[in-house]
Input
Amino acid sequence: MARLRLAILISGRGSNMRTLLAACRSGVVAADPCLVLSNRAEAPGLALAEAAGVPTRTIPHRDFGERTAFDAALDRALREAGAEFVCLAGFMRLLTRDFIEAWRDRMINIHPSLLPAFPGLDTHRRALAAGVKFAGCTVHFVRFETDTGPIIAQAVVPVLGSDDEARLAARVLEAEHRLYPLALGLVAAGKVWVEGERAVVEGVTQPTQMLLNPTG
Ligand code: GAR
Output
């Protein structure tokens, strides 16, 4: 199978982006990163991408009066780079319906919760407030409503009595760094497709163990 030409959209730290770039470089993921694009010039992830030798671009959303104009500029940049597939990795802008439709089933996102629970911002604070005993992260195809779309893969971590937002976020982030390369690798290998708004994932192994929290 041909390698996917991949663009990654970020807004900040870029730790998920870094794991995706590393997975492409090591051959775990059959994709070639052609662009890392940020809506914020000060995003620390841009320097990480440059250090990895991947072309970067900044398109500041504040330069555009309307979301449609910003998204049109994003779309142009992606096409100019020859991108075939897009990973959102901590890209904190709402995208317009037209942009999402233009990249339908060719754009995925990672969100730090077990969707459909806790979409949007302040995920970990809300999970702690709800008292859930498991948290996790989800990789999904992107649809118009925030953090919705066919789910490709999820990882689960326990919520501990001693957790605060930072501790829970760190545990989930470690899971994100395992899950996102795994999910992208499956997509790039042609093992994932969408059928009736559900993602079908083939040729994978699945867990059989139950998890209890508390355990006893
Ligand atoms: C990650 O936890 C990601 O799941 C989250 O932003 C963080 C970005 O960190 N994304 C969302 O909340 C999207 N709704 P990173 O820049 O270090 O990858």
